[in-house]
Amino acid sequence: MTETEDTSPQNVSTRFGFVAVIGAPNAGKSTLVNALVGTKVSIVSPRVQTTRTIVRGIAMFDAAQVVFVDTPGIFQPKKRLERAMVAAAWAGAADAEVVLLVIDASKREDDTPRIIADIKSSGRKALLALNKVDVSDKGKLLEMTARLNGEGVFEEIFMISALTGDGLDHLRDRLATMMPEGPWMFPEDDVSDMPVRMLAAEITREKLFLNLRQELPYSCAVDTESWEEKADGSVRIEQVIYVTRESHRPIVLGNGGQRIRSIGASSRMELETLLERRVHLFLHVKVNERWVEDRGLYAAWGLDFNA
Prior knowledge:
With about 300 residues, this protein is an alpha/beta fold. Helices cover about 35% and strands about 25% of the residues. Helix 6 runs antiparallel to helix 8. The longest helix is centred in the last third of the chain and has 18 residues, at about 260-275. The two termini are about 20 Å apart. The model has no long low-confidence stretch (mean pLDDT about 85).
């Protein structure tokens, strides 16, 4: 993070700090971060392992500026990209003032015991957010709360629904008071420190997942190859969708190119709303069997290639 000038108001006791949001894949971390920030800073899909990199969302809670670090889901990694994602999640937690573990209370979390054990071994305490309580069995929820409270690692447990907003006010207030006193590090109207080219690629990747659903595995990536500012105030963006097999290419393109056009239209509309100007978006699909070994992509995502 690059330090900026002190933009906090004068004669007010301001607070600033980082909250690392960790948890198993698909626990609702990105939905929670978006809700707490008040706008979309992290992509969301029903499929696990959507978040691949560290996403920082900046929120203002009265005199407290809180930076939420949305991390990749923590699971038992087997491949290089998976190892890099899990390492990034723990790295995000290491330097944060507060660790917030998010658990999907509506289902069994096979990775949760391992995550709790790792928090214990680090010697840290954490806050716990039991998410999706609006669709959880109340009896099982009470039993889960008692069991997790007995782990001795959680300072406080919050029952929330990131989707409906239930319980978020209490969580916001608690996090604000836990931030140390100090000047804000970002302008008051900033909501993320993610480079806009990367955010544009993430938005297209989200639309890719939402359109393809179960038809294509997670062996795809999106890279913003060019970004050209036009004289009329619009922007021309060219992106490449990488797939690992030639057989995946027609799946992304769709019959007569209908699917790629639909993906592009959805992404362009969201980008125009985000950038508040006209966007000319061009998508290309390329086969690269070894994109998962591309050091440049790992660097762009802020992941450690050698993790």
